[in-house]
Amino acid sequence: MYNFFVTFVVVIAINLLIPSKAYSSHFTHDIEHHILDEIFYYKDNTSNKSISDIIKINKWQKSTNISFGYSKDPFWIKLDFKSLEDKNKHFLVFHDYLIDKVNIYYVKDNSVKKEFTWGLKSDSNKNAIHFRKASFPLDNELDSIYLKVHSQNYPITSNVELYDEINFYKMMGFDTALTNIFFVIIFLMLFYHAFLYFITKVKIYIYYSVYLILLIITASFSTNFIHLYLLTEPLSNLQISIFQFIGLLMIFSLIYIMKPFLKIKVLCEKILNINILLLFSLFIIGRLYLLITNNISETLSLLLNFSFILLIATVIFILLKTYKNSLFSSISMIIWFPLFSMFLLFASNQFFVFVDPLLIEYLLKFVFIYETIIISLIIAYKVKNLEEKSIQLELKAKENEIFMLRTTKLAAMGEMINNIAHQWKQPLARVNSILFDMNYSIEKCTKQDFQKAIDLIENEVIEMSKTISSFSQYFHPKKVITFFKISEVIEEQIKYFTSDFNKNQIELSLNYENDISTEGYKEEYSQVVSVILQNAIDSLKTNKVNNPKITIYIHNKENLPLLEIENNGEKIKQEDINRVFEPYFTTKNDKHNNGIGLYMSKMLIEDGMKKRLLVENTKNGVKFSILG
């Protein structure tokens, strides 16, 4: 970054010297080529004189590159070309490009041969040359050029220059290249600071990003790019006022960013805030006056400019006063003193033209680039320190995370083993019952009876195998998401629990449509239904409910499939209902029941399939629901 910065400074310094010959082509100083005889200006206090009236006027005042300041009346500038024999190879450039409107008249023998318009309040598509500055090729059919300059929003200067063809295209190329470099660097810095904010979440980065956005908008307007490429139609006073307001916000945001770097005393901060408030108030009053009356107040405009100069001078004073207070104050001096010095020079030069305005414009761009690069270097240094601390914290967090994962994994594996044991109790009991019956009546059993018993045992073993597979897949997922009918899952589970229903005289009520499907892991979904049904059977049996009943509903709720399994057993206590899905919590008195089934079921449904497993007390008992 340092090598890039040094190289960039050298390149800019060289290029600033290249177009120096173009400056010597100024009308009033180019004696060697005798390009221009004289330059004159005239103020039209009536604001209604035509070009014909102006041509007849003899009372013109001689002019150099001076400022006319703010004026509600138009100024006329007269340029004579009588001694310029080959005019076709020259270009007239009016550098005061933030003018409301310029009317250009080519005159020969006291008659207008050509006419152009240029400015913020004209159509940029009709410019003589598509360039951000008012540029006009000369021709031999003229003796003089008359410029009618009218501006309500910016001071008027007679910053007019004549270039030969070589120097014009050299100036145009350099101007375009420097402007493009300026915008590319500012955009890169914007992305850089925005990126840093998203990484570090440090507010100074987003503040600086906002400042850069305001800078880009302000620079796009002040370099005439917005009017040249975006808002090509004539701009209104309101549109111009909005862009000027954005420019003020840019200055205010930069001052706000500077404050943490400076150890400003209370008195200095109060003076700074008063200056900001004064400048803001004068701007609002002046703009409202212009928008309401469609005319400017020269007094308000002068006060506004003076207030701006006062604010910039105050900032420079604070920088000089505080630069020894701390390291950051010294850095602030290096970063922002050149920038605010250029602001002061730019504002003063609009009234007392002692430096070429074109040179100030180029220097301002260079100083903005310098400011953004230096700030970025400082931020890069701060980020490096933050990254080192962040890496240390991240390593420590990783160690804690690995420890927690191992602990959680071991706990979950223990829960899975306990749950499998719980789920195997009923199948093993049924297998034991079948074997006992076979042993008791072995002499009376036929071959068909043996085959039936073997089939029943095989079914129980298959279900036990499914239990292991279902819960082990939670830890080693090799499963495929499928669409399946919920009714099929219910029918399979009903078949599995038929003996329990019959043994405990439980009535089963089914209310569902066969075509409602859901997406997920069918085996796990089936395992959860099994857990819910088993809990319902246990509740009805334990509490010896009269007329025990399980009701199953399948329907859609808000376009989501909903399975509801309700039993008319004992309701869950209100203080316990929010805990039924916690590990090792159970409402049963069975000391061998560890309450892990519903906990694992919730993990399978919500973590594995992103559905919801809910429980609630109803009028008749308890209802479990799977939504999704």
Automatic annotation (TrEMBL):
List the Pfam families: 7TMR-DISM_7TM, 7TMR-DISMED2, HATPase_c
The source's domain of life comes to: Bacteria
What's in the keyword line of the UniProt record? ATP-binding, Kinase, Membrane, Nucleotide-binding, Phosphoprotein, Transferase, Transmembrane, Transmembrane helix, Two-component regulatory system
Q: Which GO terms describe its molecular function?
A: ATP binding; phosphorelay sensor kinase activity
Coiled coil spans: none
UniProt KW Nucleotide-binding keyword: yes
Can you give the residue ranges of the Histidine kinase domain?
419-628
Regions crossing the membrane:
177-198, 205-226, 238-258, 270-290, 302-320, 327-347, 359-381
What PANTHER family does UniProt report for this protein, alphabetically? PEROXIDE STRESS-ACTIVATED HISTIDINE KINASE MAK3, SENSOR HISTIDINE KINASE
- Record-given protein name: 7TMR-DISM-7TM/7TMR-DISMED2 domain-containing two-component system sensor histidine kinase
The species this protein belongs to is Halarcobacter bivalviorum
Q: What is the lineage of its organism?
A: Bacteria, Pseudomonadati, Campylobacterota, Epsilonproteobacteria, Campylobacterales
